[in-house]
Write a structure and sequence with these properties.
Structural class: alpha/beta
Helix content: 25-40%
CATH architecture of the largest domain: 3-Layer(aba) Sandwich
Oligomer: single chain
Number of strands: 13
Number of helices: 10
Number of domains: 2
């Protein structure tokens, strides 16, 4: 956590305190994700609500490479709140996958919405199944991101390793541009639906949404308890698209452990007193609901969040 400090000006032997409006608020930094995903606009809405309802705090949201980077930053005291995938949070506190040792310094606040695993390919690539990706150029998310972790698991479950494809480490926006320019053949994205990057791509080019095979999905759900089966609705990106079977993880909000318990409690109140406002920021915000707020929570709750749930 960081604080905006009042500046001083020395005039002769007198020190004059410079203030803009009398009081200086404590900064609250919210780490989000890429600007075309759901984290960024939802983080922006959260910042707005905090600034309107939580006294003495000035919240700002920042675009990042998302889950893995966000948790590492929180552990390094670079931020106060962060959005992340629930699977990534699980790996972080247990020192698994991309985390060489367990991370600490942050706790869970609430689950927010399902983050859907979306495999999108250009129609011209001829890709119709995950197995068709072999030998193709595939964007798997930013290196070290939660999307990249999921991409590896999905590909490996279908018998494909990074040695079998040309790996491109790209975020949503760059992957969509690469597909549009036909510099890559396919991309795996993990985000709330509809995803802006895919919507923009579908407006310019015919695309194929690739299914996660049912038997593979069942195996992954059994192996990784944070996965849930999900269906991408018919016509979400193109009118003639059928429904697509896939998987989802949960987007969640975490807080730095040093963030005051009362402040976290107030932020929880702000979120669940204003759930409708998140849908205006991004359609995935329609899933923000107190009834599902603890689904897939893989780490200990912050005391402020725990107290909030106990009071409901």
């Amino acid at each position: 956590m960081k604080k905006i400090l009042a500046k001083t000006l020395a005039v002769g032997s007198t020190t004059v305190l410079l203030t803009a409006c009398g009081d200086f608020d404590e900064e609250l930094e919210i780490l989000t994700g890429g600007e075309q995903g759901a984290y960024y606009p939802l983080g922006g809405q959260l910042a707005t609500l905090i600034n309107e309802n939580v006294e003495d705090y000035d919240a700002s949201h920042f675009a990042t490479s998302a889950s893995v980077v966000n948790l590492n930053d929180l552990a390094d005291d670079q931020g106060d709140l962060a959005l992340t995938q629930n699977d990534t949070a699980y790996y972080a506190v247990n020192g698994e996958v991309d985390f060489e040792e367990p991370l600490d310094g942050f706790s869970g606040m609430t689950s927010l919405y399902p983050e859907v695993i979306q495999i999108v390919a250009t129609e011209s690539s001829g890709v119709e199944t995950v197995e068709d990706l072999e030998g193709m150029s595939v964007a798997v998310g930013d290196a070290g991101s939660g999307t990249e972790v999921v991409s590896q698991q999905i590909l490996e479950a279908h018998g494909i390793t990074y040695d079998d494809i040309t790996v491109e480490y790209q975020d949503f926006e760059d992957a969509a541009d690469g597909l549009q320019d036909e510099n890559i053949d396919a991309a795996l994205m993990v985000a709330g639906t509809p995803t802006g990057a895919i919507e923009a791509l579908a407006a310019q080019q015919d695309i194929t949404m690739v299914e996660v095979e049912e038997d593979v999905a069942d195996e992954l759900v059994d192996e990784y308890p944070y996965y849930t089966e999900h269906e991408i609705e018919e016509g979400l990106y193109e009118d003639d698209h059928d429904a697509v079977n896939t998987l989802a993880v949960q987007a969640m909000l975490v807080a730095h452990d040093e963030l005051d318990e009362e402040v976290v409690y107030e932020i929880m109140e702000v979120i669940y007193d204003n759930t409708d406002s998140f849908e205006t920021a991004h359609e995935s915000g329609s899933y923000v609901d107190i009834e599902t707020a603890q689904e897939g929570m893989p780490i200990d709750l912050h005391p402020g969040a725990e107290q909030y749930f106990e009071d409901q």
